[in-house]
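Q: Hi! First time doing this. I have a protein sequence and I read that you can turn it into a structure. Is that right? Here it is:
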Amino acid sequence: MDQNHSKPTEPQPGALTLADLRDLIEQGSIDTIIMAAPDMQGRLQGKRVMPRFFLDTVLAEQSEGCNYLLAVDVEMTPVSGYDFASWDRGYGDFVFQPDLATLRRAAWQDGAAILLCDIAGHDGRLAPVAPRSILKHQIARLEAAGFSAYAATELEFLLFRNSYDECAKRGYRNLDPANLHNVDYSILGTAKVEPVIRRIRNAMEAAGIQVENSKGECNLGQHEINFAYGRALDTADGHVLYKEAAKEIAQELECAISFMAKFNEREGNSCHIHLSLRDAANRPVFAEGLGHSTLFGHFLAGLAAHAAELSLLFAPNINSYKRYAIGSFAPTALVWGHDNRTCAFRVLGHGRSLRVENRLPGGDVNPYLALAGMIAAGLDGIERALPPAGAQRGNAYHGDLPRVPRSMDHALALWRGSDFVRTTFGDQVVAHYARMAEVEIEAFGAAVTDWERVRSFERM
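A: Yes, that's right. Below is the predicted 3D structure, encoded as structure tokens:
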């Protein structure tokens, strides 16, 4: 990101108050309200609600949904082994609890508004295993310590000139990338896809999510759109709304966007997360004079100390771990460095804009979980006054350095065996996301891949 991170995001014209919504409904401009909650994968799940029902019933009473939404795999198959929801428990309902602060135009759809919801029980308490709840809990811990977190996510994707249905019919092979060569920072190369990217940028602005820029990336058809720095929860909310809108816009234009971490053997899709803290007076606390503060050093030490055991929050899928390759701009070493893109944690900016960039997450990350992990790790470093290791100089791909977990199996073992993780997130969250990882590992273990067929069909 090139922006100066000294100012938080300001509300944009697309953001709506409840009074605004009532006026737009009366004018006939809004006829659909999308109520959605982020699931374990960071996808939006919910309902389209008619305006009269929303105003007269949902706001006064409740809107419910099946609690299996937090106990399914990526294909929406109910999976055993979850305590939160199961066949034994009857798969009852939870409550979609609207967060009116997220109400905005769904500017990429005609006549629609959208708002995000927390997942709660009928007693009003947030579901502890819901991603938004997990982030809110860590933000509350941080605020109790006198700080607030500001963040931005840089989410890369691959754009194909095939619809999602066509991609599926082709078995996700022999697709047509929107660019046929590396267009990193290329104005000419990005002009070729501007009809799609421009639609996304303008839709986000119209929805009240401030866009800073878009640019090309290295892989074929790879691009990135960047958004303004803001409070951590707002950033996560904007991230999932953007991801949903980008896919819907691409589909409307008979294209497809993929955020998977590693689509092929070329560069993967990253999601670098920039983060800094402010004190109760809204003053940045990472900088001190011309350098960085002691507090920032403790925060970095916490990140480095706990990154491996928090890997499931940064790399939540089997495919995520294939992105960590030497010389790929994805990190393999759990160290920090000044403006060093070979490190997991890159320190950049100066003065009010000084921040840490977490380069571990890929495009498949759930932003709520990743930000919760960063806050928890950094806060532990502050609370225990952990001393940071020295900044890594030179190429962190080589040398005797602590490394990222080799696989999801390795990451799961670290997650389960961590006293820090259990103390910080609680037994229920640990068990829930351990089961999510097990489900993916079991599914992959049962699959026969193209690699195996090519390698074994004739020659074995």
